[in-house]
Structures
1.
Amino acid sequence: MVAEAVKEKKIKYRKWKKENMKEARKEYKKSRRNAKRVICSAKEKKQKECVNDLNDSEYQNEIFRMAKQMVKERQDITGINCIKGASGKVIVDDKGIRDSWKEYMEKLMNEENEWDHKISAEVKE
């Protein structure tokens, strides 16, 4: 039912773009509203089924799986996928990336810079 409504909407859209007529645009808008209505009712039906399943005792672990999935879907995708470690190997797992960054930052912050201990600033009183 949903696939049919979406397919009809796509056909009407192509027809409207090809003909560029007001009637074709009206037909497209009508089919677009219908597709939205069908999709919304299908989503609502699926949500009701999920809620009914979660009330059943054998689906208690599904609650935690769904919550974990929802949290994962809402995470930002700005993280780094892979880096090269100090040895030149490519690291892809999260723990390895964190350890590599930690090692790099410790080396960077604890490195001693050589200087000649001469201060060339004038003292003002």
2.
Amino acid sequence: MAAEQTPKKHSDEIRERREKVAELIKFKTESEIAEDLNCSLVTIARDVAFLKQAAQHWLDDLAANGFIFEYKTALDELKENRTGLKNLYENATDPFEKRILLKDIDANILSYIKLLSEAPTVLAFKRKTGGAANV
């Protein structure tokens, strides 16, 4: 005897459909998604609007409550990685390995500088959203 499946809740169906829409919207139009998922275009447009609003709330929350911390953490990790690369370079004996490590150190420095160059934008955004700029 086969086990009976309980029917999905309507909210579960919506959540699952929106997850599919979130993936498909990267590559397809809303019309194509509606056809693929056998839904109306209005439903897909509503799902896309919901996903955009959810993403905006997530970004607003990140900016207000944690972006500066994440930014500082990323800078600290880049510094730690650079220190590790320098230690590896100093202990390396193979010229080819040293050359690769120098390239990695250069890439690390460029990443650090790029992240630093974005700081004014981050701070301006933080101020605009009403948060304190503590870097």
3.
Amino acid sequence: MCLRTNNMKKLLLKCLLIITIPLLMTSCTVQKYLSVYDGSKADGTITMFYEYGAFDKPVVHWEEAKQEAISKCRNWGYSGAEFFGSGVQQCIAVNGYGNCIRMRVIYKCQCTE
């Protein structure tokens, strides 16, 4: 009877691990706001970025990013701003195995007249 109870406990523990480990490995949704990275008043361009971890699922607040870009462009004498192209991803941190654990995504904005 005691042997059977130990086997049941081991089986239950294995089942809990099989269920728990994938849940821990899933990505988490994180809110991201773009920050100004660089800019050129003469060219009328602004570079913005956000960063996220390996298990993050970023949700970008595009309206806030556009408003920040417009504000920067207006400070330079332009009337607005538009994002162009798609974001460029860069790995900025790796673990001991060479796997990327932190990403930076960079976007360009063009100031408009």
